[in-house]
Amino acid sequence: MSASATPPPRRRKVVATRNKQTNFSAYEDDVLCKSWLEISCDPVINTGQRRESFWVRVVNRYNSKCSTYPERTQKSIMSRWDHIKAEVSKFSGYMAEMIRSNPSGMLDADKSVATAADFAAIEKHNFTLMHCWQILKDEPKWMELKRKMDTPQNSASRENVLTSEQRNILDLDPDDSSAASSTGKRPMGRDAAKAAKEKVAAASSEYVSKMHDLSVQKIELFKESEVEQKARLDKIVTLEKVKVEEAREHCKMMLELQRERLAMDKQRLKMEAEKKEKEELNCIKNADEHQKGRAQLQGVGQEREAAVVATCACLAAWKAWR
């Protein structure tokens, strides 16, 4: 090759740009959980289905039900499912612990709230997949997971200390054992396994201690709440008794006033009747006296008229005699 030969032009490395997909919404999470349940619990296709074909079915089912949302790739859906699986599994463990403690006077809704508080206190972040837990909590695989998480070995998973064996326990995907063996990772050595076991035991002990402290605090809060409620109810009852007594006294006073008013009205009517009767008697008496006086005047007039007539007769007789 000559020195004057020009080197061939270098090819530019084309970097593929990838648009970041939006976060999964609560509706998409629900569809993903339901699609996973439908495919994994289907007795026709569940038997012997491989991991790859399983997830192809899940992705197809998911995208067909979320046609109005952005289409998700298999990698995106599997990554989201791993997150849901880990978070819901942890929350299921806390809920199992809450159910075993069985606080008195606590409703199911209160238990969910208290469990979410425990989750946030220990995991250092809030549990945001309550809608997924509501869908998965009563499924047989999750019920089995709860029983496995009750063992001391699996309880440490709530502290994010997971050995490879515990990760297999938390994995709910079918044919995951074959997928795990195909990763080609070197198996854990004896010393590492021993250290991991000691770490798991320490984390489990710490978890039990924290849960005990939380249970004691909750019991104290419930006791205080019951005392406060009793005091408040006693105060309400006392106030109601006072109100009833005041109302009774008020009614009694109003009744006495009504009786006095009726007595006064009765006395007034009696006096008015007596006055009217007296006036009528006076009128009758005056009328009698007037009639009597008139009769007397009439008699006097008649006597005077007779005297005048007699006088006139005497004068006439005297004149005639003369």
Description:
This protein has 322 residues and is an all-alpha fold. The chain has a domain at 26-179. It has 10 helices and no strands. It has helices at 26-40, 51-65, 74-101, 108-123, 130-136, 140-149, 152-155, 164-170, 176-181, 190-321. Helix 3 crosses helix 4 (108-123). The protein is rod-shaped and about 190 Å long. The chain starts with 25 loop residues before the first helix and ends with a helix.
What's the short story on this structure?
With 322 residues, this protein is mainly alpha-helical. 75% of the residues lie in helices and 0% in strands. It has a domain at 26-179.
Biggest sheet descriptor: none
Shape: rod-shaped
The number of helical elements comes to 10
Spans of at least 5 consecutive residues whose pLDDT stays below 50 are 156-185
What class, by secondary structure content?
mainly alpha
- CA radius of gyration: 55 Å
Portion in strands: under 5%
* Element-by-element helix/strand order: HHHHHHHHHH
Measure the end-to-end span. 217 Å
User: What is the share of helical residues?
Assistant: over 70%
SS elements, strand count: 0
Estimate the mean pLDDT confidence: 74
